[in-house]
Amino acid sequence: MLRIHFSAGDLDRTQVADHVDPLWEMVFSWLRLTERDSGLLFEPWLRAVRRSPERQAIRCGVGVLSVLAPLGPYFPDFLTPPEGADGLAAALTAIRATPRARLRSEFGLLAAVCPTPEWTRPLADGEPDALEELTTVLARYHAAVIEPHGDLVDEAVETDRVHRSGLARDGVEGVLRGMWPLMNWRPPVLEVQYSYDRDLHLGGRGLRLVPSYFCRRTPVALADPGLPPTLVYPVHHDWTWRRQLSTGNRQEGALAALLGTTRSSVLAAVGAGATTTELAARLGASASAVSRHTTVLREAGLLTTVRQGLSVLHRRTALGSALLCSHDLN
After folding, report:
1. Which of 182, 244, 232, 239 lies closest to 44, judged by CA?
2. Whether the bond into 73 is cis, omega within 30 of 0
3. Average pLDDT score, the chain
4. For the whole prediction, is pTM greater than 0.90?
5. Neighbours of 300 (CB within 10 A)
6. What backbone phi and psi angles, to 5 degrees, belong to 55?
């Protein structure tokens, strides 16, 4: 649990960014590229990236990011400078200007939780050529993986913003309350689902909330409490599903394409409700395979799952039923 403590003036100084931060998106995107199941909404993007002719740029970017921003309790804050609010160029300039003392400190923290290869030593020493090479790799990765899909990202963020803007009528506290279940506003403390236990005291600095398309499940904060307080949170993709349904989107990213034949069959086979064993029998598939698909459908907001004794019962959500009706899958 991350507990963010607000004091006098912090609510007035809290802001919600209206666009993603390019460096944070790069950090999260390499995780989506390499994890076993990145969720339904990422599948069109994954297919496009895997077909990209810029394979060398993507491999180099993933190779660097997997070392500098590993999945785990820590990665260096210099990779995600606040200048990212002003765009990619400003962020890369800030990375190249990172003080040597800070680089040595942050690479020391990284090495304590994850062994670092020899090629990171010039970066840790703040050598200008190494920092220049790093930003070149990041810029090429961004051009291959993030930039071509800007419209997709912008639509999801705008949809999230529109839905949260109604909550803004109640001020910042309304926005914070609307972040449930990612966060729980218990004035004067914002409780955030987190991978480990920590406290962050704003001390009058306010909080910058940044939406992210590629962030998944839980928000992420800067590690150093002395830096400008920042919390990056995943946009609510359920609202993106609803917008696509209401507009009748039939592009490659349309809902039927996102589901695929097998998951469409699983969603349809649920009917009025079914256990994993019942679904396996209806589909002629193994229970383990069905379980993997129901997990993805549940994370996408299309199924709910409740335990009943030794079994689990799956039911379609209203959104899942609307999807089936919209695409005549049942």
Report:
1. 244
2. no
3. 86
4. no
5. 24
6. -65, -35
